Amino acid sequence: MVTRRDLLKYTAAVSTTIPLHVRLLQAQERTLISRMIPSTGEELPIVGLGSSATFSQVANSEDISALSEVMRTLVENGGALFDTAPSYGGGVSERVAGQIVNELKLQNKIFWATKVNVAGRRRGGSADPSQARAQIEASFERIDKSPIDCIQVHNLGDPPTQLGILKDLKAEGRVRYIGITSTNENRYPDLAQIMRDEPIDFIGIDYAVDNREAEDMILPLAQDLGIGVLVYAPFGRTRLWLRVAGRQVPDWAEEFDATTWAQFFIKYVTANPAVTVVTPATSTAHHMLDNLGGGMGQLPNEAMKRKMIEFVSALPSA
What are the backbone angles phi and psi of residue 45, rounded to the nearest 5°? Predict the structure, then answer.
């Protein structure tokens, strides 16, 4: 299987031979775009960091130094949002990230977005919120920050129980923003109903240049209702890397300041005005830096986005 690491061997996009401090200086020549959280007007840098996939794998290893460099690179180059969940690595991603951020004294520079996925129903169908509450309290302990910036119901788990808890926590001032996620387009009608019915600040969805179902209903609805959008999997996990393996980024991508495939894919997503932050996961600092480049400079206009879609659609499927 071709991974992003393999692909970089074929391109001159990001050289791992360049010292990290030099690459940091290069990235600082441009400013990361920010977007407002619709419910408050607070601004967030448009590219953040996710903690599934390779981040979770490294968090479960004995040597987590690479993740320290990733977190440092995120913050030193203008990023802020870190997306995690208790289910990533059995809670290890959340715990290790909390440990790193506190050791580096970056806690006040990170916008923490985590999730709750424990429903805790008794037999007979009556809701018992105690297990969900316990999971959330465990997140507070791992992250070691109060209030936590954002907690979302993970993949439409048990909204009546979990959103009820989150609304209480927000009212108590222990959580700043609440929301709900879905990475399954078949459940977008359910997600849309909750967006209409509940006072949420954020949704989280999968969205990529070859995964555009959210453009039909969810993203326009988020704009209409004033709900922020966190985007996961802008690379289709490994799918898009497989499709572009051995290919150079087209020359015309320079028109919107994309010089690497990561920037190409991220800029397609961030060009949608409904998107607040995209959170690609990574466990290496040079990939983090490359990802941040996707939130700098020009973004593609509608004509260029159509050209990007046509280009990717013509590639062999993964």
Answer: -60, 140
Domain count for the chain, please give it. 1
Residue with tokens 């994309």: 258
User: H/E element holding 68?
Assistant: helix 65-76
Supply the pTM of this predicted model: 0.90
> What whole-number distance in Å separates Cα of residue 104 and Cα of residue 99?
9
* Owning domain of residue 48: 4-313
Beta bridge partners of 81: 111
In a domain, 318, yes or no: no
**Neighbour-count burial for 168-198, b at 16+ CB within 10 Å, e otherwise:** ebbeeebbbbbbbbbeebeebeebbebbeeb
Distance separating alpha carbons of residues 250 and 142, to the nearest angstrom? 43
pLDDT (tens digit per residue) in 169-219: 999 999 999 999 999 999 999 999 999 999 999 999 999 999 999 999 999
Give the domain CATH number at 192: 3.20.20.100
Q: Is 180 helix (H, G, I), strand (E, B) or coil?
A: strand
